[in-house]
Specification:
The complex is a heterodimer. By secondary structure, chain A is mainly beta. Helices cover about 0% and strands about 55% of the residues of chain A. Chain A is built from no helices and eleven strands. By secondary structure, chain B is mainly β. Chain B is globular. The chains are: A mainly beta, B mainly beta. Chains A and B meet through β4, β5, β9 and β10 of A and β4, β5 and β10 of B.
């Protein structure tokens, strides 16, 4: 079963606007990761936030984590056409956290 | 470094055929895993390995076998292909088990079972 669920499923914005994607999960975690997937390609790791962190930045990316609500958000500021991709949240589960569970993803389209 | 490589990129099989998807990494990562990605469902873990000689099942292991004889290679075998196994398969690796370390993904193998 899926652990993370992204919202919205699809998002279309203009270049320069900000894009916000949300992820909800079901069980306790020790970290949450965001990945990007360009069409027809493998996933690329963007950022990891640990359960004792509330916010983390990496370039134009800002990730927040609310463990009380079991939710995370990914904000991409000043979006570019090259940001067009699918974005997934993922959480480790199971014994020794070896089982990584991904959500179904948010498909982001940035129009030039 | 080539990172994580997968072969073939595309494959068409008939129901009942068997085949092996190849995965190799040159980063000396202990942990390797196989996922399948179906439309609208994200990635689901099939099998994983925390080191040479050690494998374990993930969320959807039925119909697949794996082995890990070397650190570098982690092949995925389809024993008797079924249309339900039509999917895109991704191999990934990362350093040491049980942590949130970044996973590196291969480019994927698109498999169609007729």
């Amino acid at each position: 079963s899926q652990q993370g669920e992204e919202d919205p499923q699809a998002l279309s914005i203009q270049e320069g606007e900000n894009a916000t994607m949300n992820c909800s999960y079901k069980t306790s975690i020790n970290n949450l990761q965001w990945y990007r997937q360009n069409s027809g390609r493998g996933l690329v790791h963007l950022i990891l936030i640990r359960s004792n962190e509330r916010e983390k930045h990496s370039g134009r990316l800002r990730v927040t984590l609310d463990t009380s609500k079991k939710s995370s958000s990914l904000l991409i500021t000043a979006s570019r056409a090259a940001d067009t991709a699918s974005y997934f949240c993922a959480t480790p589960m199971g014994y020794n956290n070896n089982d990584m569970r991904f959500g179904a993803g948010t498909r982001l389209t940035v129009k030039p | 470094n080539a990172g994580v490589t997968q072969t073939p990129k595309f494959q068409v099989l008939k129901t009942g055929q068997s085949m092996t998807l190849q995965c190799a990494q040159d980063m000396n990562h202990e942990y390797m895993s196989w996922y399948r990605q179906d439309p609208g469902m994200g990635l689901r873990l099939i099998h994983y390995s925390v080191g040479a000689g050690i494998t374990d099942q993930g969320e959807v292991p039925n119909g697949y076998n794996v082995s890990r004889s070397t650190t570098e290679d982690f092949p995925l075998r389809l024993l008797s292909a079924a249309p339900s196994q039509t999917s895109v398969y991704f191999c990934a690796s990362r350093t040491r088990q049980g942590t949130g370390n970044e996973q590196f993904f291969g480019p994927g193998t698109r498999l169609t079972v007729l």
